[in-house]
């Protein structure tokens, strides 16, 4: 399935009320995101990666900000968001990862449930920017074609997306990152030792 990808203006208060603020229709909750934040921080510690700068690309309502700052108190957190409504409300940087121009690099980059909202050209720009700004660990998630057909609750999931297969994302990310599994990717050339059995099959 490929649906019409929403414009930036559609990420308004009504969108976030439906998918984030209303517990009856929300796609996630604070407890789930707290656990995800702890997982991300623990994985960085597991591979011995010092984290001083975090970029949350597509940070939404900022549910990862608090757990990450609790787990990584010495790290700065930068939220990047395409929704003008959320940027005004929370003070995020108003940009999508596909258009991010700043030259800073980050030890930890998070890009979760973002790229399904981009068309083909925007997705390629986003992948290039992820490789450019991430000097360490990338935590990446996306709604794939397989997820839509087999895994997600379609009544709670936004259908206005472009769906691609998981194999496509793995191939494209694998050009610049090593797959560690469970959504984690290590920037190739990062001076961190990862044992063979801690990598995903065929990652090297």
Number of helical stretches of at least 4 residues:
7
Q: What strand order characterises the main sheet?
A: 3-2-1-4-5-7-6
The secondary-structure class comes to: alpha/beta
Shape field: globular
Radius of gyration: 16 Å
Mean pLDDT: 92
Cα end-to-end separation: 32 Å
Helix content range of the residues, please?
25-40%
Order of helices and strands: HHEHEHEEHEHHEE
Q: What profile does the largest beta sheet have?
A: 7 strands, mixed
Strand content: 15-25%
Low-confidence stretches: 1-7
| Beta strands, count | 7
Report on the structure:
- The chain is α/β, with parallel strands linked by helices.
- It contains 7 helices and 7 strands.
- A 7-stranded mixed sheet has the order 3-2-1-4-5-7-6, with helices on both faces.
- α2 packs parallel to α3.
- The N terminus is likely disordered.
